[in-house]
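[job 0412] stage=fold_complex status=start
inputs:
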Amino acid sequence: MAGELPTTEFDDIPEELLDELEALAHERTEGHVNMVQLLDEDGRFLNRSHFAERAASLSVDELRALYRDMAMIRRFDAEATALQRQGQLSLWVPVRGQEAAQIGSGRATLPQDYIFPTYREHGVALTRGVELGELLRQFRGVSNGGWDPKENNFHLYTLVLAAQVPHAVGYAMGLQRDASRAAAAGRELPEPAATIAYFGDGASSEGDVHESMVFAASFKAPVVFFCQNNQWAISVPTQVQSRIPLHNRAKGYGFPGLRVDGNDVLAVRAVTEWALERARSGKGPVLIEAYTYRQGAHTTADDPTKYRLTAEEESWLAKDPITRFEKFLRAEGHADEAFFAEVAAEAEALAAKSRRDVLAFEAPSLAAEMQNVYAERHPLVEEELAWHLEYEAGFADADAGADANADTDAAEGGR
Amino acid sequence: MPTMTLAKAINAGLRDALAADEMVMLMGEDIGSLGGVYRVTEGLKAEFGEDRVVDSPLAESGIVGTSIGLSLRGYRPVGEIQFDGFVFPGFNQITTQLAKLHARSRGQLTVPVTIRIPYGGGIGSVEHHSESPEALFAHTAGLRILTPSNPHDGYWMTRQAIECEDPVILFEPKRRYWLKGEVDLEDPGTSADPFRAHIVREGSDATVVAYGPLVPVALAAAEAAAEDGRSVEVVDLRSLSPIDFETVTASVRKTGRLVVAHEAPTFGGLGGEIAARVSERAFLSLEAPVIRVGGFHMPYPVSKVEGQYLPDIDRILEALDRAFAY
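[job 0412] stage=fold_complex status=done
writing structure:
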């Protein structure tokens, strides 16, 4: 009888998956097992990975666009950091150093894919066509979002670590269902789509990431888990989150995981494109660990000099994603001085526009915020809103009366 | 009009919701072939398939979190949490995400997720299987909370929760799953608005407000009080968020006395909220302070002594005596 029951030994792991895992295990770079790299630190193209073909097929315009995106987001990020220092933003989450991980992965997505960011995905937002100034609303304190998530399939930032990861899996399960319902009804199948869940090395310790991977594997959901391992969860190094390379965790859930040089925009783009195609074709999830480095602080509230060494920062500066890609473009003759000057000017204009946008943001009224707590009418909210409006109106009366004793009037005008 | 148990009525509600809208789907632990530990989802997997009635991994945060994602894609997921005390691994997703996404997005996103939670004690179970955590959720803006006390409401609240554009937590009084009653499957009647309280017994001398598992207890207490010549009105709250204070206050204005009874611990519970609001709204109508009857400030006790912990007829009568002493 026992022989007829489903085995717990997973005898039925498909050959294809085993082959994929095997192939990935042969990617080696710089002493990292399983790390895909297509550009070395000097920007030389490395043709030793089976992902190289994807990068080689990019047009010069596409290559230049990758550079442009990275340069734009770096300048925007610097401006936002300055705005915070000047007291115009209550907080900022710098992305400096992670531009390749974000631009490379974002540019690998298709419009029908849906992106679930954490709170640092400014570069991904750019690739999805989100107006960058909108990202500053949350940090200016005038919104908890700032853009329409459905317009660019780019979800709102999520500040609770890893909470967006199961949402990405659920959405992916929804995409699966859309296809199966269409098939059952004899309707035209929707365009294949996938989701990407972004999270960091710190968030990888959260239970939600584990539960998400269990759900994704069990239901073969079309989701790509994109972990940016920037080495530090605020002040705590990756080694405290995981004693093995993070991408190795995927194998335990039964889907491929691989590490990509997160400072190599070509490698990130190629690997993410592969993972998304795989997910869209119904083969299930992939975990990508983008091995990168946060050059600045976790947020403008912390001070990296208290927890990490200058030597480490310098060693990573040598791997800077933008400098490396610039070297590549120059060496290959894909871009000249005029191109870089043009991008720099464009980035300055973006920074100036972002600053203007921030200063022009208007705070919503509390009343307007109250009106969006529920989708349907809610008597408690209505009652409290009415009280609030009446109370505020009491102050207006007092002001209009030009009474020296305005406080008393206001109190009487209240409840 | 068919007569059925509360469990069967909720089952019928789920079945009809699944049949009415292909975007409705159920997800939870053991809800498929087993039909749920209380058999509330019995037969639904066989009827609608494993894609509509999903046996999920054993992961409460995953159930709520993926339900949110599914709802963002247009689905109407109904997640089952197996027992009250096991909702806490999913608490973060419910309170920080499910409750807030509509507000955070300024109304651009809606998350019509229903979370079903069997709750309350009185079934002789082991720890974490008898709790009443409703106040923890009622305190969170963005959620709606319903709790049926009878099969008719069980059927209709299930349908109404699933149809609601807001996230709804449906607290199902597990010790009343086997309570039988008539269910009008065609017409909700006075249950058409799930957020209205019901006066389930008219009276003129005092009001007892109760909900979920304690409604039959409150009715029995009112019956007993009548033998002493006291006319007690009983209000079944039905919705715990929002609370229908109009009905409660109108009743107190009529009777002048209020006792609120729930199984959850008294301290920080909904009884305190009701007492405070009624005091603000109808202070001059009150002949006595509002008196609360509830659980003690302790973890839910071992089942051999839960009879002393749970509000019963005598505890409610004692509270009424105190109210009448003023």
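[job 0412] summary: The CA atoms of residues 147 and 293 of chain A lie 28 Å apart.
[job 0412] exit 0
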